Amino acid sequence: MRELRYIGGSEARIRANDGIFVDVEFFDGHEVVTGLEPRRLFPTSGLTKYITLLDSEGMEVAIVRDIATLMPDSREVLENSLREYYMIPKIKHFEKMTEDFGVWMWTVDTDRGRFTFEVRNHTATVKPLYDGRVLIKDANDNRYEVPNINDLDTRSQRMILPNL
Question: Fewest Cβ atoms closer than 10 Å to its Cβ: which of 32, 45, 72, 112?
Fold first, then answer.
């Protein structure tokens, strides 16, 4: 069984492998571990801290304490991998909203185009976060994000959080 390692600076180099996978070269023993999957341990609140690197069996090989402490090339590789894995459309504007028997239908403009989706339980699937972001999970388990509720126009803010 491999010992879990913590990466907190320049003790390792992270290189792109294929798609979302990365390779890690640890400088202390010249060990190279390939085909690791980066995942956020705290996907909603810890976007740049505590990133786990999983092997093909889903076992943790290493944890990056903070992406900001990595060498610039390693940081860029890890950020790109995470961005690809956590590809969540960012909502820029709420175009239309209807409600029928407790099912909300929203049409939104995002950084990936226009989407129309259902939200069945508004209070359980629309999550405002402390930093101004709002996460939304639709009836098909697709995820959307409002990067900052305050950047939306007033009409859009009232659609997403009617109690504002």
Answer: 72
Tally of domains in the chain: 2
The whole domain housing 139 covers 91-160
Q: Which amino acid is located at 67 in the chain?
A: I
Specify whether 101 is located in the same domain as 150.
yes
Q: Residue 125: its pLDDT value, please?
A: 86
Rounded CA-CA distance 11/14 in Å is: 10
- Specify the pLDDT at position 96: 92
Listing from the earlier edge strand, what are the strands of the sheet with 60-66? 5-7, 60-66, 49-54, 31-40, 22-26, 12-16
Q: Which residues contact 119 (CB under 8 A, 6 or more apart)?
A: 103, 104, 105, 106, 125, 126, 136, 137, 138, 139
| 81 and 97 co-located in one domain | no
* Same domain for 25 and 46: yes
- Residues 26, 97, single domain; the answer is no
Q: pLDDT below 70 — which residues of the chain?
A: 1-2, 44, 162-164
Give the distance, in angstroms, between the CA of residue 111 and the centroid of all CA atoms in the same chain. Answer: 15
pTM for this one?
Answer: 0.61
